[in-house]
């Protein structure tokens, strides 16, 4: 090990707190990068593993579509020679007698088909063969949870009918029984038994088969064309899941950009301190024959080590976050089944490259500055750093802010396809511009106060002059401002998201919603009859979603919402129309008409009067004329496109709805209980409007918590960076402070000056944040407009007192370090060359 390598190792070990700061900054950025890259893959893989565990090799499900007169079919009705390995079942849902909360899905099948699931083992059986009559196969998990033994009898309620069954076998908790819980579980019975519940002799409602993944979309398209009354689809549609996860991924990347700016400043400041502290040692090395190049390479090696360690720990933390995310999103966690976690190791490589790169680039300027150091002054330990002018950075920053202003005011007119297309670049131009102009603003703001305090008290003048002339103290103001702006954005988005979710339901006129969890035509018909005959309703709105794609392109999803336009007028006060009554009347009178969302209009360049071709899983090309455009806001993430039930019947043969919204003058809780009784035995969910609000609030809780964790992390990074900068400031100003003490500055005066510096830094940062956040939040709102998502970004005024208190505490904590170090200042040592 050569002398320079020993020098690096010793320096890192001696300054553990600084090494921790640099590594911490790098590892946070690396963690966010790895987490954002891997989150989609990890959760999607987990769901794929769950599905494969439940249905093993079967990846396609076939059932009757809306064009079929009955939900039942036989193998003779299926026209496809490729279907070999298959699992046939007649499915029905229901509840346990006297317990509406314990629901089941009953699969009617043959024993031969059941045995095709290789992972299922029959643990116990009694009179299982012949597999006929009211025999049941249950899982070991349900046997224990419901205290059911072999030979036990159980009464089940299905489609409003009660029948008694006998437990004939208990199976292992695999495959079909993998996701069994006390609230929702699977039962297996003979096909004839479930058919008799429907009043049929024989038939199937679902056929599961296995198709090669590389050919799956082509096979589905061909099958659906050949079988017009049947619909084949994949068991798991990755595109829907990935679409939801991309929101989280985008937020993590957005966080990464902000943290990266902070980390860069911290690493830069830290290496500035490292170089300044080691100037005497650099002088010694130069006097002994070392070259500036060898010293610069040594510093870069140190930077590389920090990057390597930060990347190593950041990768581990990123892996841990991904593992935790997968575990929390695991649908089987309540059953005690661990999620299977697969990590793409290329992301760890990206993390290492990223961490080393930001470490080296951030330290580039302080290290390369060694080239300009005068050798004589360094060797004689008489080197003084030069003052830095902020005129150029102020001009560049002002220019970037003006560019962001121009982007905002021309946002709606920058191309008819995607208004506010420059919203994201404009936001970061503004953010960077604010960072660049902070020193200039500080110098301008403090100058008149220096003049004012000159004739009143020398301590404020000295403190203000120190702030405007010290690069590290100016960087403190930058760090505080960045962290405060970040927290302001997080708080604003959190409050706005909560308000937006509530706003959707506030503007829908209903009291109780009914969701039928079945595509079975007979079930839909019977449930519709129950709702139509219900005597405590004042109004009923029915809806149904149909998933289609534009021009047979699976990436261009167009979700159709089937409605009765006349009733929909009184139900919907959320969508933004140009003329509500006129637009819905046009929809009611045109069976080929569609009202599309503004989001899809912009995304696919569609406008009023265009004719579009839509394809569903069970229909060929269906042409619709765009009657008008509405702003769908956050409803279904903006992908709401209205057609009438008359159009749905003509184009997709949709005869029944699976969503109903009831208005009533009676108590909603009692109506809910009453409807649950009426639908007992049917696969129906009943909830009040408040239930829906609570459900959406719960689903967004983790998303909002992610933002909150980030805001506190950014504040922690800022605090550590400020501590580092104050250390730099003290090293740079030791001689100045010693000179002031030597000419009469008292210990109390020195302490007051340092405290005044700290609180003034915080006050200026708070003032800059207060003003700049108004504009950054406006640009943040533009980003949502670009995404065509209506969200009202409001300024979080209620948070300002807490922000002021937090900044005061942080600056007081930071100033304590300087106060303690200044007590140990050796005046003779500092002034011996003066």
From TrEMBL:
Start and end residues of each ABC3 transporter permease C-terminal domain: 254-374, 708-826
Subcellular location: Cell membrane
InterPro entries from the UniProt entry: ABC3_permease_C, Lipoprotein-release_system
Entries under Pfam families matching the protein: FtsX (PF02687)
Main location per the UniProt record: membrane
Biological processes per GO annotation: lipoprotein localization to outer membrane
Membrane association type: Multi-pass membrane protein
Entry keywords, A to Z: Cell membrane, Membrane, Transmembrane, Transmembrane helix
Regions crossing the membrane: 20-39, 252-271, 304-325, 345-369, 390-409, 421-452, 473-493, 709-731, 752-775, 795-816
Record's GO cellular component terms: plasma membrane protein complex
Cell membrane listed as a keyword: yes
PANTHER family cross-referenced by the UniProt entry: LIPOPROTEIN-RELEASING SYSTEM TRANSMEMBRANE PROTEIN LOLE
Family: Belongs to the ABC-4 integral membrane protein family. LolC/E subfamily.
Name assigned to this protein: Predicted permease
The organism of origin for this protein: Clostridium acetobutylicum (strain ATCC 824 / DSM 792 / JCM 1419 / IAM 19013 / LMG 5710 / NBRC 13948 / NRRL B-527 / VKM B-1787 / 2291 / W)
């Amino acid at each position: 090990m050569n002398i320079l390598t020993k020098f690096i190792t010793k320096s890192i070990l001696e300054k553990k707190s600084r090494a921790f700061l640099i590594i911490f900054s790098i590892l946070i950025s690396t963690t966010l990068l790895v987490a954002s890259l891997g989150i989609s893959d990890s959760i999607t893989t987990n769901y794929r593993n769950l599905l494969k565990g439940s249905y093993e090799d079967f990846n396609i499900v076939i059932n009757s579509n809306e064009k079929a007169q009955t939900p039942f079919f036989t193998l003779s009705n299926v026209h496809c020679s490729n279907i070999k390995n298959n699992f046939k079942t007649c499915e029905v849902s229901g509840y346990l007698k006297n317990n509406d909360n314990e629901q089941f899905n009953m699969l009617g099948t043959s024993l031969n088909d059941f045995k095709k699931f290789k992972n299922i083992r029959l643990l116990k059986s009694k009179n299982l063969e012949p597999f006929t009559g009211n025999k049941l196969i249950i899982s070991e998990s349900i046997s224990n949870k419901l205290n059911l033994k072999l030979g036990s009898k159980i009464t089940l309620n299905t489609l409003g009918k009660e029948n008694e069954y006998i437990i004939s076998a208990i199976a292992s908790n695999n495959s079909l029984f993998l996701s069994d819980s006390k609230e929702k579980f699977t039962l297996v019975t003979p096909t004839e038994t479930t058919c008799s519940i429907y009043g049929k002799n024989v038939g199937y409602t679902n056929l599961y088969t296995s198709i090669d993944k590389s050919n799956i979309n082509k096979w589905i398209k061909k099958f659906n064309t050949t079988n017009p009354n049947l619909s084949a689809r994949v068991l798991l549609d990755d595109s829907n899941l990935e679409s939801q996860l991309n929101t989280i991924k985008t937020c993590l990347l957005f966080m990464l950009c902000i943290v990266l700016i902070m980390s860069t400043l911290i690493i830069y400041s830290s290496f500035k301190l490292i170089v300044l502290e080691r100037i005497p040692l650099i002088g010694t090395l130069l006097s002994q024959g070392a070259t500036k190049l060898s010293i610069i390479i040594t510093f870069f090696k140190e930077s590389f080590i920090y990057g390597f360690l930060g990347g190593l720990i950041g990768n581990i933390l990123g892996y841990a976050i991904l593992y935790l995310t997968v575990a929390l999103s695991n649908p089987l966690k309540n059953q005690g089944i661990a999620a299977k976690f697969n990590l793409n190791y290329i992301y760890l490589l990206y993390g290492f490259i990223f961490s080393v790169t930001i470490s080296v680039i951030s330290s580039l300027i302080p290290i390369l500055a060694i080239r300009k150091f005068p050798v004589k002054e360094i060797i004689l330990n008489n080197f003084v750093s030069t003052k830095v002018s902020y005129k150029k950075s102020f001009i560049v920053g002002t220019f970037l802010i003006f560019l962001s202003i121009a982007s905002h005011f021309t946002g709606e007119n920058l191309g008819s396809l995607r208004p506010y297309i420059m919203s994201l670049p404009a936001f970061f131009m503004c953010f960077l511009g604010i960072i660049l102009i902070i020193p200039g603003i500080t110098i301008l703001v403090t100058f008149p106060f220096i003049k004012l305090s000159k004739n009143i008290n020398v301590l404020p003048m000295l403190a203000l002059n120190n702030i405007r002339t010290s690069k590290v103290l100016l960087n403190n103001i930058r760090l505080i401002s960045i962290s405060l702006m970040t927290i302001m954005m997080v708080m604003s988005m959190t409050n706005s998201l909560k308000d937006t979710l509530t706003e959707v339901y506030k503007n829908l006129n209903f009291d109780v919603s009914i969701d039928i969890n079945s595509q079975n035509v007979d079930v839909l018909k019977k449930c519709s009859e129950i709702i139509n005959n219900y005597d405590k309703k004042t109004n009923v709105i029915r809806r149904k979603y149909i998933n289609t794609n534009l021009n047979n392109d699976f990436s261009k999803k167009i979700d159709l919402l089937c409605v009765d336009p006349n009733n929909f007028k009184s139900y919907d006060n959320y969508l933004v129309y140009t003329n509500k009554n006129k637009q819905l009347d046009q929809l009611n009178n045109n069976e080929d008409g569609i009202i599309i969302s503004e989001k899809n209009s912009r995304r696919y360049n569609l406008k009023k009067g265009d004719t579009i071709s839509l394809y569903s899983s069970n229909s060929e090309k269906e042409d619709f004329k765009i009657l008008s455009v509405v702003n769908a806001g956050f409803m279904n993430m903006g992908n709401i496109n209205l057609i009438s039930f008359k159009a749905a019947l003509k184009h997709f043969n949709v005869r029944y709805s699976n969503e109903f919204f009831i208005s009533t003058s009676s108590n909603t809780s009692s109506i809910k209980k009453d409807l649950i009784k009426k639908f007992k035995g049917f696969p129906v969910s009943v909830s009040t409007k408040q239930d829906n609000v609570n459900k959406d609030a719960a689903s967004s809780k983790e998303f909002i918590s992610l933002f909150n964790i980030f805001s506190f992390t950014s504040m922690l990074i800022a605090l550590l960076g400020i501590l580092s900068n104050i250390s730099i400031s003290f090293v740079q100003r030791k001689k100045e402070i010693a000179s002031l003490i030597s000419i009469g500055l008292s210990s109390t005066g020195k302490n007051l000056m340092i405290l005044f510096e700290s609180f003034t830094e915080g006050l200026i940062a708070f003032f800059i944040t207060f003003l700049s956040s108004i504009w950054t939040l406006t640009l943040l709102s533009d980003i949502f407009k670009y995404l065509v998502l209506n969200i009202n970004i409001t300024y979080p005024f209620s948070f300002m007192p807490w922000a002021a208190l937090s900044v005061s505490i942080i600056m007081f904590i930071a100033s304590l370090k300087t106060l303690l170090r200044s007590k140990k200042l050796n005046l003779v040592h500092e002034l011996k060359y003066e």
